[in-house]
Amino acid sequence: MVERRGRLLGIEVKATARPSHRDARHLRDFLGEYGKSAHGGLLLHTGHATEWLADGVLSVPWWRVL
């Protein structure tokens, strides 16, 4: 989790090249628990695609972020 100016970003890393909606379940729980304090969720993975897995949860290859 990263906090900036009172807003939270949940981050999770998965050792998969093709994350699914199921892989975002903990980030969806995070967003539900923290409500308006949560800015979103970021799921880092080993693949190449960038896509929305759920409302507020973006999956991105780890190498695009680091």
Describe this structure in words.
With 66 residues, the chain is of the alpha/beta class. The protein has one domain (2-65). It contains two helices and five strands. The chain has helices at residues 25-34, 62-65, and strands spanning 2-4, 7-13, 38-45, 51-54, 57-61. Strands 1-2-3-5-4 form a five-stranded mixed beta sheet. Strand 4 (51-54) and strand 5 (57-61) form a beta hairpin. The radius of gyration is 11 Å and the shape is globular. The model has no long low-confidence stretch (mean pLDDT 97).
Count of DSSP helices? 2
pLDDT < 50 stretches: none
When the domains are counted, the total is 1
Rg, nearest Å: 11 Å
Q: Name the structural class.
A: alpha/beta
N to C succession of SSEs: EEHEEEH
Name the features.
single chain, 66 residues, alpha/beta, 21% helix
